[in-house]
């Protein structure tokens, strides 16, 4: 008797992302998408497609100099699909044509966009659609005005659209290789309008769609927000502010040394916002101090919010870790914040997520070191954290890596976008419930 294979929502998401990446790989590898009119190695097409779909930004080629308009369009389309989640994009299309969304599709959307309740999925999709159009459209308009005088109307308009989508989706891809290949935003480190616009888009996309809903529903009545939204907004503010202050004092005498005070402040905030999974750079990270790069790696590790366009271990996971440490030190039984108690499952999930994340990064770093003995451990760790955190920042080693190293980073980007726990759940098809419970025995910890 044949048995039907039943796929769970997280498995469908994992397979769906994989199929989109493969389709993008074949398209980007073809001569039709490259300015040279010749195909590129499939591994490089796969790397670029994975980086775009997983909204990472690591690139073996400069996007402007390598890909023609069709290639650039495919990259930004992959970024949009990856940023909003392919199920979110599919359900948005269903919503626009008036098709009904089934219970199973709603459960898929819960996994894809990180909603807390199945009943709020359709409302979240509607807000996600209109919010994305509003923020990306406004960002495209502002950025276009900056580039139209430099590159002409149509090119400037395309630059506005491309960089607005890439910023909002926390992708980090850019077309600024026209001015200096691989330079990202370093030529515009003194442009407050451009940097503030990009920062705002990054932060807006990074707080997550759940927070959007609370802000729309309750306006500025902070007490009415869900606990998730309160944690996200407070910790986002603190991370950006403390990161900016740290960068100002660390990099003031170093990579920001030749800048006036107002420009130092601007670039300090940009350096604090961008590593939380966007991947744009206003200064060359190879020129940063070791302390500045270490702080960048920490910010890449923490990342953005759940159900957002960003990656990392997620800010709520980091908050749960800090609360757990504080509660243990004070001998409290519960994890409490804003007069609410977190469920015990949240603590277990947070520690499992962090452990999986750290193990994956360390394993990839080790593989990169073995395959590239000439590259420093710092550069390999930086690259691994950037891939797993779907950030896209680099110390300039990406294009020098071989096939094995690229495959390691591809797997890491894929796991980083889906989440290490989600990947493990996708591999394990069934939840195994043990039939017996063994006797308890203590061990020494710490």
From TrEMBL:
One of its GO terms (molecular function) is monoatomic cation transmembrane transporter activity. GO terms for cellular component: plasma membrane. The keyword Transport applies. It is found in: Cell membrane. One of its GO terms (biological process) is metal ion transport. It is a multi-pass membrane protein. It comes from the Bacteria. Coiled coil: none annotated. Signal peptide: none annotated. Keywords: Cell membrane, Ion transport, Membrane, Transmembrane, Transmembrane helix, Transport. InterPro entries: Cat_transpt. The chain crosses the membrane at residues 7-28, 40-61, 73-97, 129-148, 193-212, 232-250, 311-329, 350-371, 404-428. It holds the Pfam family TrkH. Its main location: membrane. This is Trk family potassium uptake protein.
